[in-house]
Amino acid sequence: xxxxxxxxxxxxxxxxxxxxxxxxxxxxxxxxxxxxxxxxxxxxxxxxxxxxxxxxxxxxxxxxxxxxxxxxxxxxxxxxxxxxxxxxxxxxxxxxxxxxxxxxxxxxxxxxxxxxxxxxxxxxxxxxxxxxxxxxxxxxxxxxxxxxxxxxxxxxxxxxxxxxxxxxxxxxxxxxxxxxxxxxxxxxxxxxxxxxxxxxxxxxxxxxxxxxxxxxxxxxxxxxxxxxxxxxxxxxxxxxxxxxxxxxxxxxxxxxxxxxxxxxxxxxxxxxxxxxxxxxxxxxxxxxxxxxxxxxxxxxxxxxxxxxxxxxxxxxxxxxxxxxxxxxxxxxxxxxxxxxxxxxxxxxxxxxxxxxxxxxxxxxxxxxxxxxxxxxxxxxxxxxxxxxxxxxxxxxxxxxxxxx
Amino acid sequence: xxxxxxxxxxxxxxxxxxxxxxxxxxxxxxxxxxxxxxxxxxxxxxxxxxxxxxxxxxxxxxxxxxxxxxxxxxxxxxxxxxxxxxxxxxxxxxxxxxxxxxxxxxxxxxxxxxxxxxxxxxxxxxxxxxxxxxxxxxxxxxxxxxxxxxxxxxxxxxxxxxxxxxxxxxxxxxxxxxxxxxxxxxxxxxx
Lengths: 404, 191
What we know:
The structure holds 2 protein chains of 2 kinds. In chain A, α1 crosses α9. In chain A, the strands form 6 sheets. In chain A, strands 1, 2, 3, 4, 5, 6, 19 and 22 form an 8-stranded mixed beta sheet that branches. A 5-stranded parallel beta sheet of chain A has the order 8-17-9-10-13. Chain A has a 3-stranded antiparallel beta sheet with strand order 14-15-16, with no helix packed on it. Chain A contains 9 helices and 22 strands. By secondary structure, chain A is α/β, with parallel strands linked by helices. The longest helix of chain B has 23 residues. In chain B, α2 packs across α3 and α2 packs across α4. In chain B, strands 1, 2, 3 and 4 form a 4-stranded antiparallel beta sheet that branches. In chain B, strands 5-6 form a two-stranded antiparallel ribbon. Helices cover 29% and strands 28% of the residues of chain B.
């Protein structure tokens, strides 16, 4: 089948691109491996809520109109939101259609092979999400066989885990949310903490995202930041979409009984070794959150309260004999990565990452990627960031089609 | 992220660190990552008792053998209360030297990068060590440090928060701090 544009993925970024393409009268199809919002439906834990408040959860021609603009959508609510959005989609959405290969077509353009058919397109927009598979460090292979390993990708709820102690590796949004939930289920939890970003849920009576928008952080562009590699790899902030708008930082999990240890740096003969850098990574995060709040105060005038310093034991434990100390589960909250294994084009750098300039894939005209961390702006990471990114990429794409 | 001193726009910090050269090197090595793989070398010869002498001349980096401007020599020994002759610092004190000098180089580099003028940087460093470990007197006691404390006294044209951030960032980017806080595979063999 020939079509000018194929969009791979019918999540929020693919649907946003589709909406903008339709507005520009560009004929296209969406190919979706499962159903609309598939990742949200099938690959996230039950209690997850968006980190962003409802009023900020918007897409081109769709805004939140529910009763709780300051709340945070559950996954089910978000799925409903995206399904309503997809209903308004004029382009065909081929669900149950998993793309297995994208390659250069003989006659130019791209050949997109999927489980239900093959499409040839002048342009392809990859909107397959940033988080397709869990990242687990190589040292996972060194863990004792009796320890159950669960990734945040497979985690759904506390009852799924064995009753014993849990070592949660990672203290960004995912790790800290799951650790907090496991503590609430009565489990003993140790959290291995590397570099992290601390943020209060609210500041001076407003959601932190309101302030991030107000001081221009969310609109910072990829071609304006100092160190883009670093900006794209900044861990997700320690936040949760809490119903009471409470903070979820390391102090919150230690108040619930968690033990903090340094980054998991090795496993040998059943013993896990933790870095001695815990104090410094906590101090770094404390300094950074203070700088953020200073920037807010500088912009808004006045001064709000500062979060209490992160509490760290005088002598955090440097090792744990996992089996002897009663650990039954290691929960990997060590990040996710995009899967591009089906992309058969010379578009990767030596580390296997897609080379692109704000979503315009390098060296492969007509190929676009959306929905990656800090793709074009800091807000690209969040739902509402899809709107401006879709507009920019479709502008580029329309120009490309006109010239091709 | 460059610091800006709005009240003295002409001021530019000079801590004697060529940050531009370091940033250029980083960019060059991102494109040629093999060049970033360095091997540091030292040769140690036993003298007598617990006294040894280590010389350092050569290293490998940027894809080639390299040399220091001259050969550096270090004596290591133990103090007289260990029934030694005290011809030099103890090896564990050399570890403290490594940590403090690495962090201090980092403070200067980060300050330069943030355009912060340093006027004085002093570190005192203490490492606690229970010698019953190395003497084999108590199997529960580890050989190495049970804790290390570094205290910085810094006079710089910057706020206390900015100075604390310098020190925190220097830990984040310190090789010796990493060596001490994380395990490293060590292979010792006989030729």
